[in-house]
Amino acid sequence: MSLETVKRSTVPSHANVTVAKRPPIARPNFLDEITVEHGPVDVLGKFFLKADTAARERGITLSFAPLHELQQVNDRNRASWKPLVPLFSSRYNDLDPEHSFCILGRNTSGDVVATQAARLYEWPDSSFYDAARSLRLFYDHPEMQALPGETCNVTAEATKSVTGRVVFSGGGWYRPDFRSAGCRAFCRAFRGPMPTRGGIPILPRR
């Protein structure tokens, strides 16, 4: 009798075999990764604690991640999420952790069910208006990466005064079965505290 035959004969054909599911990968605690360098520490500390508690009460654990992980989540959930705006896509930009991050919310099985992202732009000699019109807001190399004939028309005069260090927040997505759980509220709430990571002026995305 061969070894292969012995292996096959140890489990009857009519037996019910249960494969144990691997436990979710352990990730750093969301609160442990936050350092408040600007603003009222006590107020912001309470805010982050409240947001983390609200998420956990809904069965969601928050963690920081690089934007290439946001791209992967987007690719896996196209049935309920359109392709990322290029400025958050790792396919068009070199998104280093010093200038970009996302917050991922996972359920008890470790599946991502909520996202929120942000990018830090540095425009000491230009503005949001210039970056948007030239498409540098969206692409590292617009002359090679933009679609044929792609343009961005900016009519708001105020964008010409948006300069220096600017955070663009977006990339929000919530898995359909969690959209009634109220996770939109605490994920979107992070648009405000993001500037405290260096006194960065924020440009809300509506």
Please give a handful of descriptors for the protein shown.
206 residues; alpha+beta; Aminopeptidase; five-stranded mixed β-sheet; 25% helix; globular; disordered N terminus
Stretches where pLDDT is under 50 for at least 5 consecutive residues are 1-11, 192-206
SSE ordering: HHEHEEHHEHE
Please identify, by name, the CATH architecture of one domain.
3-Layer(aba) Sandwich
| C-alpha Rg (nearest Å) | 22 Å
The CATH superfamily of one domain turns out to be Gcn5-related N-acetyltransferase (GNAT)
Helix/strand structural class: alpha+beta
CATH-assigned fold name of one domain: Aminopeptidase
Strand content: 15-25%
Number of helices: 6
Fraction of helical residues: 10-25%
Major sheet attributes: 5 strands, mixed
Shape: globular
CATH hierarchy class name of one domain: Alpha Beta
Strand order of the largest sheet: 1-2-3-4-5
Q: What is the total tally of β strands? A: 5
How far is the N terminus from the C terminus?
Answer: 70 Å
Kindly report the average pLDDT value: 80
